[in-house]
């Protein structure tokens, strides 16, 4: 079965697109998908992701076409993906598309990163201020601003302080499936769908 997933991230730089794909590829391998990985396409901003997704969905080149994007806001209903995108972005569901084609990082990629405290401690070392990170309970209900600011503050004294782009994709590729599944319902949904589709 062939699969393509369009990724939010990577900006406009070819190098960052490569690093984005690599970070997500490593994360998917950590989740047990080695040997059945989808084709990953880094698209940059969320509107570019949606445009590329619509094109890929319409062409039907893959058995499964998905997009992995930030939800930007907490989800009212975990399974009502297109309803959320209509309300938040004004996007209409393409003909024949399903909610399972939308994979959310709720509320943002940094939510995934702050969840795995063991990997953060290993990656950032002793200068990580873990107390500045948002609490693990109800992480997906927290605003992306709260999560991103907490991560920036917690790593500010680290030589490799968190920054979107190259550094963010390095730590993304180290995350543990079990840590994320323990705390993030949206991540469990992503894994469940990919287990079915890949």
Description:
The chain contains nine helices and four strands; from the N terminus they run βαβαβαβαααααα. The chain is an alpha/beta fold and 198 residues long. It folds into two domains: 137 residues, no CATH class; 49 residues, no CATH class. α4 crosses α6. The model has no long low-confidence stretch (mean pLDDT 96).
Q: Tell me the helix content.
A: 40-55%
| Shape designation | globular
Strand segment tally: 4
Number of helices: 9
The number of domains is: 2
Query: What is the terminal-to-terminal distance?
Result: 7 Å
Spatial arrangement of strands, main beta sheet: 2-1-3-4
Strand pairing plus helix content: what structural class? alpha/beta
Largest sheet: 4 strands, parallel
Strand content: 5-15%
Unreliable stretches, pLDDT < 50, 5 or more residues? none
Order of SSEs: EHEHEHEHHHHHH
Over the alpha carbons, how many angstroms does the gyration radius reach?
A: 16 Å
Average pLDDT over all residues: 96
List keywords for this structure.
alpha/beta; 4 strands; 198 residues; 10% strand; 9 helices; 2 domains; single chain; globular
Write the layout of secondary structure elements.
Layout: E1 3-7, H1 14-30, E2 39-42, H2 46-59, E3 64-70, H3 81-89, E4 102-105, H4 109-115, H5 117-124, H6 144-154, H7 166-172, H8 177-183, H9 185-197
Parallel strand pairs: 1-2, 1-3, 3-4
Helix pairs in contact: 1-7, 4-6
In short:
The protein contains nine helices and four strands; from the N terminus they run E-H-E-H-E-H-E-H-H-H-H-H-H.
